[in-house]
Amino acid sequence: MSLRLHRLTLSRFRSHPRVEAVFDGRPVVLHGANGAGKTNLLEAISLLSPGRGLRRAASEELGAQPADLGWKIEGEIARNGTLHELETGAAPGQSRVVRIDGKTSPQSGLGRLMPMLWLTPAMDRLWIEAAEGRRRFLDRLVLGFEPDHAEAAVGYEKAMRQRNKLLRDNVTDPRWYTALEARMAETGGVMTLNRQATLARLATAQSADSPFPQPELILADDTPADLAEALAESRGRDRQAGRTLVGPHRADLSALWAARGRPAAQCSTGEQKALLISTVLAHARALQAMVGHAPILLLDEVAAHLDDARRAALYDALCDLGAQAFLTGTGPELFTPLGNRAQTFRVSETAGDSQVTEEDLP
């Protein structure tokens, strides 16, 4: 079984007025100068999954200038031998729309068809910055195994926003809170169970002979078993704070370099990146064991902070997994160990517009 993005078409997306690229299933190398539009391509692919993509940009930020013409991303994927047409985009002043095989679909439908995971340079500091980024990373890991996790998270956030408004408006009537807190307890319980199950799967999928350090991932989540009761008891305290102070939205993910007993936050930049890569590879192995294929992987400037040995080991691991990975870098020499195991494209820029050209490298 396999998962492949075969074709990508962009219309007026960021710096790309028009892109038509066909992929043959091998890992894809995108090389070019800084600012040429490589990350824009990865961002476009990331929007063929639930959420706001790897930059978390608003829809109105994604169109090429002039922005009043809208933008569109189309992809053809093959999942276990079945072809699917994916489309997302937005007309001027309109919300983003998703279509799967020509029919309007919720974003969760994308997650069921094409699990996806990414690493970007901004994530190099994931282990030492705010907990919000780590929660997003964890929930992206969860989506590969539990596509309905996105719906639970959206339902929880919607109910919490409504509850927070009541708190800020100093509403005290309990009748206004009860239904919202019940919804938060239901969806929050699903989120917590999904997160715990995902960490257990990742622990099982760690490779003892990998050149990347094995992380022990730890979920710090003090969400009580009876969240509805805890929310009711916390209304006074939450009203003073103007926000909800208990629940899975306050959970945090941490990592420990298992062999050395060292927290990721105390590791070097290169070690922190290696721990992230190890987590991504474990996720790919776990998903392959569960559904028969690895996720689509978007690895932006992944070679940074990796020595030659680990760089080659990463490429070997991706090929061994049979994963379709999209990798960016400033020059093709960064990907020499891949040889003809990869498909290579040069991304260039002229007068603000990006071009994508396939190359046959020696």
What gap, in angstroms, lies between the N and C termini?
31 Å
- In CATH, what is the homologous superfamily of the domain at 130-268? RecF/RecN/SMC, N-terminal domain
Number of helices: 9
CATH overall fold name of the domain at 130-268: Glutathione S-transferase Yfyf (Class Pi), Chain A, domain 2
Instruction: Give the SSE order as H and E letters.
Output: EEEHEEEEHEHHHEHHEEHEHEEE
CATH architecture of the domain at 130-268: Up-down Bundle
Give me the side-by-side strand order of the main sheet. 2-1-4-5-6-7
Report on the structure:
The chain has helices spanning 38-46, 108-113, 131-145, 149-168, 175-205, 227-233, 235-241, 269-291, 308-321, and strands at 3-13, 16-22, 28-31, 71-79, 82-90, 97-100, 103-104, 116-119, 215-220, 252-257, 262-263, 296-299, 325-329, 343-350, 353-359. The protein has a domain at 130-268: RecF/RecN/SMC, N-terminal domain (Glutathione S-transferase Yfyf (Class Pi), Chain A, domain 2, Up-down Bundle), CATH 1.20.1050.90. By secondary structure, it is an alpha/beta fold. The protein is built from nine helices and 15 strands. The chain has a six-stranded antiparallel sheet.
